[in-house]
Amino acid sequence: MELCTRMTKQLLLKEVEKGNYKNLVLSPLSIDVVLNMVAAGSKGRTLEKILGWLGSKDMEEIKSQSLQMMAVAGGDQYL
């Protein structure tokens, strides 16, 4: 999630530097979810790189974290 927070901050700063002060919403959580989905569909070196970016050791860790987030968002039905 730290990577996603940094990415969001960088994207927002770039827009401000361009003078783009329109309504702009970026969600670190959404970026994290998308990267988790990309990781789930990856294998080999690509998967290794994504796991490194996310700071995860394997897909089981990502699955566990995703289930925890779903439980927080949707109640215990996902546990």
From TrEMBL:
SUPFAM superfamilies, alphabetized: Serpins (SSF56574)
Alphabetized Pfam families for the sequence: Serpin
Organism annotation: Rhododendron griersonianum
InterPro entries hit by this protein: Serpin_dom, Serpin_sf, Serpin_sf_1
Family: Belongs to the serpin family.
Domain Serpin: 12-69
Record-given protein name: Serpin domain-containing protein
